[in-house]
Amino acid sequence: MELLFEGFRRAFEILFSLDPEVFKITWLTIKISGSATLIALALGLPLGIVLALYRFPGRKLMVAMVNTGMGLPPVVVGLFVALFLWKSGPLGFLNLIYTPTAMVIAQVIIAFPIVAGFSVAALQQVDPQIALQARALGASRWQALWAILKEARLPTLAAVMAGFGGVISEIGAVLMVGGNIKGYTRVLTTAIVLETRMGRFAVAIALSLILLTLSFLVNYLLTYVQQRGAREWPYRSWR
Amino acid sequence: MALPKLEIKDIEHYYGGRRVLEVQKLSVREGECVVIFGPNGSGKSTLLRVMSLMEKPARGMIFYEGKEVNNKNSLEIRRRFALLLQNPVFFQGSVVKNIVYGLNVRRVPSEKIKEKLEKVTSLFSLDGLLPRRVEELSGGEAQRVNLARAFILEPEILFLDEPFSALDAPTREEVISELKRVIKKTGQTTVFVTHHREEAAFLGERVVILLEGKIYQQGPVEEVFSKPVCDEVARLVGVETVLRGKVAQSDGSLLKISVADQSFFVPGEAKLGEEVLVCIKPEEVIISKNKPESSVRNWFRGKIVEVSSYGRILNLGVDCGFLLKALITQSSYRELNLREGDEVWAGVKATSIHLIRREE
Predict the structure, then answer these.
(1) Which of A2, A212, B208, B258 has the least CB density, counted as fewest CB within 10 Å?
(2) Residue A200: what are its φ and ψ, rounded to 5°?
(3) Which chain B residues are Cβ-neighbours of A129 within 8 angstroms?
(4) Which value does ipTM take for this structure?
(5) Does the CB of B1 have a partner CB in chain A at under 8 Å?
(6) Residue B360 predicted with pLDDT over 60
(7) Which residues of A touch B149 (CB under 8 A)?
(8) Which residue in the set B89, B106, B149 is minimally distant from A129, CB to CB?
């Protein structure tokens, strides 16, 4: 118990002293996972739109692949990204291994199917008549598509949340392609592992608290926006 | 004569390899209210979607004011129209957002939108509804909002696809009267699709009968309803008794038609021995206990074999050697002290009978 209490006390000390090293790690984490989520959204949402709204041969296979991808083990992603970016690998000439860019690439691969999968679900729950209704009132094809997206905007936020939540908390991939280089590729998760291994529990606890807070804040913000459009259940019912 | 506002020619359309539409020619003139009337599955909605440029037909041409519609100009022309769907869908949010949607996609400036909104608000008495969320509207209110979002566009042609079929009877009557009033007031060119005989008769100036994707008959509503060209159309416009007969006598203007071993007298001209269909609407049949002295030419003795009720009115089936369908009010039925199995006299005026000549 002593270890735990002492650990938390020291952790808060570290947090309130605004340690520049901790701050740097946190900021890098936000940058990497944030940009990975945005890129995943930019790639995953269009794929989600295509899979949800259009019918073509191979669509079901692709949906199944996306769904599988949603549970892709980060270490496996890390391994393959590392293999590709390795000095002697096919993309080795880019010199990206052990850089923040490599970490973003790995996280995009993890988040992309999550965003696409959630987008498919979000778009498929929109009334298919919405596009017809929009066109009936004079919308062009693009405006009709936009009308569908607007109807799905709230559940699509869940895609962003899930994507960000998935990458900010993963460690396997960032460790393998980033290498946990101090001041360069060290992020919250890799730092937590390192500090724990070295027995510096207080620092590990402090970093964990930051990670938790970050992921809570992002989710709170998105939930707040999402729930703004939510309605009360319209009637009382018997059990 | 001015060019029709809209004209379709040699239209064919298919769903899954099955032909659902085959229309040689149909036009809509400025200011008229055309009703497309047909049973479920006759292709009415498809025809309306083709006419309103929502769907591109597999074959055929569409002309807007004489100009052929093509991929380039179709959006611009479609935006001169508005279509009300069978099952309206509302966009999440407020009533007002829904009403101005069509103006927004047309990039109408906001001052103009405000002006038009005021006009349509008073036209459909929507004052209290504007800030409300669409989910909170009742069925009748939702329909008024639905009408408003089409009328605010001041469309050159308004297309309506059975927009009121989901409403209860009193609300439907109310909304339809409202629609008729607004159409009259604004001189709105309208194309209305319905499978309701009453709606068709109430709203239409010109009626187009669609059956199995084909136009069977079109013309002024009174003409189509009183002079159907074939058996199928006759049943659609409310003829419940259709009898095969033969011209037994023809003296200039009056024909004697024999049906079973009975005879009908009907004004008209036909060849002796020609086969005809005798069409009688149930509301044209008079039921009486004794054969009355009257100008009615055709009286038949028969037995009531069917009685069914649709609320205020009773439907009778009278077996006169052929089955004659008749309507009678509840009070007349009681007054005459009738019941199933009773012998009655059934009368039909000669001028109330419509003949379909089969060899034309």
Answers:
(1) A2
(2) -90, 75
(3) 85, 87, 89
(4) 0.80
(5) no
(6) no
(7) 137
(8) B89
